[in-house]
Amino acid sequence: MRRRKSHGLFTNLRTGSGSLLYNNSGKSRAAAQRSRDRRKAEDDAPRLIDVLPGLRSAKLAVTELVANGATKYIKHIVVARSPVLFIIPCGDPVCQDGGHDITSELMSAFRKRLATASGESACSGTTGTAECRRSIQYTLTAEYAS
Ligand SMILES: [Zn+2]
User: Fold this and answer.
1) For 114, how many CA atoms within 13 A lie in the half-sphere containing its CB?
2) pTM over 0.85
């Protein structure tokens, strides 16, 4: 990784930064487009509170498995504001088109009023020319109105 980076810098210094700048802006345009798409999808999705009025609170414990270990974090689902769209982004910054859409899994757990549910998802993105190897394990905890 380190070797590839310094090689890239070396090439760049020799050939000038024009093409690098161009590539970068192309990439960030694509990233901006992706985040616009994601926001639009979130705006278009119905609100959780409208679909599941009995849901009181929910949170997700996510463990992302990476090459040398795991990253854990908790994602709180704000029932009052959350859209019916649960996409956990891939934690690898170079991953393209990755992420974990677990909307149908979570919705099915909510509809069954499960207090806990867990599952796994493998990233389907790509890092450079290779497939992304990351995956997540998640545990949902939810509370419902009685
Ligand atoms: Zn990925």
Assistant:
1) 15
2) no
